[in-house]
Amino acid sequence: MIFAIVGTQRFPFNRMFELIDEAIDAGIIKEEVVAQSGYTEYQPRNFTAIPFLTQEEMNNYVERSRCIISHAGVGSITNCLERGKQVIVIPRRKEWGEHVDDHQLEISKVFQDNGYVAVAESQAELQKLVPSIEELTFQPYVRKQSDLISSIKNYVNSL
Amino acid sequence: MKVCLISSTGGHFDELTKVIPAVEEHDYFLITEKNKSRKVDSSQGKVYFLMQQERKNAMFLLIFMANIIKSFFLYLRERPKVIITTGAGATYPFCLIGKIFGAKLIYIESYAKIYSSSATGRLMYKISDEFFIQWETLQDSYPNAKYRGALF
Fold first, then answer.
1. How far apart (Å, rounded) are the C-alpha atoms in residues B81 and B96?
2. Which of B3, B6, B62, B75 could, after both became Cys, cross-link B28 (CB 3.0–4.6 A)?
3. Which residues of B touch A153 (CB under 8 A)?
């Protein structure tokens, strides 16, 4: 199974669902696809889209999936990586009204450069990645050492 | 000490929940945006809701005004000594009201911003008591910000 995640932004992300529909039409994706659709209005022809999911329901779909196709939301991506899943990221773009700016491009690039995810920005890239994702090697996602929480804690306790 | 953790929905809220361990020994509560595709788990503590606002939405001004009024009443009801936020825009009125009434503000710029500052970050930079960035690459945009690692 493939689970597709577009997040909870008010902006629709129709393009991602169109890409998946086209990949199913082309016979590239043959397995079941379930999507968390949020505010994306596009009605998929070939797969199920569920607008409202709790975190627990999301996690269940992630666990059951072979591969995830996700917008480049940090929470969505890291949640899948921490469950050891292979993630194809499609960044939301400002120019097509998919987000307020292009920060998802930056996030995609950093996660790709670190070897955590694969990025697809076109139908050709998605169709190449989906069948071969198991052959790719990804780096295990390890949270880096951070003093941010203790710094916040120390500051609050000093007041 | 009463602490308020406030953020909008989506990734901002994911980041906010990661800050809870820093304040769990205090009397804390959460404020986030109501979002029908995202149910908030009440086991994370007391939660209040603002309306979901996005600055490219046609109804933005109306929702923003409603959120300012709601923020004001929420502030008077809880009167937190510390306000911690991970953005975005919907949290700004509450932070500004808190600042006027003497609360300390802690802002954490989103992990999703790597090379350029955010609109909320630029506003909060002027009023925050502590301002954290999660990427060193942002130090040029916010010279006085502190880099102490990331939430993810």
1. 13
2. B3
3. 21-23
